[in-house]
Write a structure and sequence with these properties.
By secondary structure, the protein is an alpha/beta fold. The protein has helices spanning 8-13, 53-69, 82-86, 106-120, 159-170, 203-214, 268-278, 292-304, 309-312, 328-346; strands at residues 18-27, 37-41, 46-48, 72-78, 94-102, 125-134, 137-147, 150-151, 175-180, 183-190, 195-199, 218-223, 239-242, 259-263, 285-288, 315-316.
Amino acid sequence: MAEPLAKVADFLKEGGDLVLARVISGRGSTPRNSGARMIIRSGGQTEGTIGGGLVEAMATNMAAELLTSRVSAVCSMDMNNSDAAAAGMICGGSLELLCEYIPAENGTIHTFDEVRSRHQACRKQVLCTEFHRSGNELRTVRRYHIHPGGPHEGDPPSPGLVAKLTEMCMALNGSALFEADGRTVCIDIVDGPDSLYIFGAGHVAREVAALGDRVGFRTCVLDDRAEFASEARFPVSVEVKVLNSFADCFHGLAIDEHSFVVIVTRGHEHDRSVLGQALRTRAGYIGMIGSTRKRDIIYRALLAEGFTGEDLRRVHSPIGVAIDSETPEEIAVSIVAELIHERSRKR
């Protein structure tokens, strides 16, 4: 699912104010964690999810009020009480939502254009929104980005506040509302999409690409067969590259610790070649399809080439979660489930 914050600018440009609801804290079992976000537009249309059911109904009702009053507010939901039980919510936890009124103004659109462009460039970012608080009523004062070199634009008023925000960011994954230097500030950590490189464009790759794209990876498929590595076989949002060969298939790729490499080529030799090249990168995840027998044969060949046991322990092979999958669709579910798990663990 796309990051809702990256879509705010587009909706504002269509001429309508909106409300951005995000989970800012949660205790116990809740449907979504801190950082879950949902856009609510004036007609009640939504983008994203903060947990469905009663949580989203409450946010949607509040949004209708805020679009009229043109202020923001915090609301709480206790999923231990009788109302939640009557609605079929048996999570048993509680959460807080910040429902922020966002007007369709040029300055605001510019800020969220910045959010979108950074997200498209796969860059992690921190958006800070400062409010004036009066009871439960919040009015937006300013927005600015924080990055290692300091604020990006719309400077916060003091170095002390910058230091406090930076400290908070180190311990946060998601969204939070807190008081600092007498100000009420919401921090939104917005992770850029992790890159997924799929080597091989066969039946399994096709399904992995579609599902990986759907769960938020920035996906690229690479193969040396033009008839397989074709845009007609893959979703529009998936990048497809035709290689001259698998012998130098990582050339020009920006592989780092946020990159996921899935090896599903059409043969053992191609898999061995790609795996050897992958082990020379900083890829955060490397997975190779195949049986344990195939894996062991390839591992022995790579050890003979000078790779170590520590190198090979980076590899997930056989790839995927063990669910007795057989069809390309089932295998893709197994593989992408493992990718999601590893992505969550790293974050």
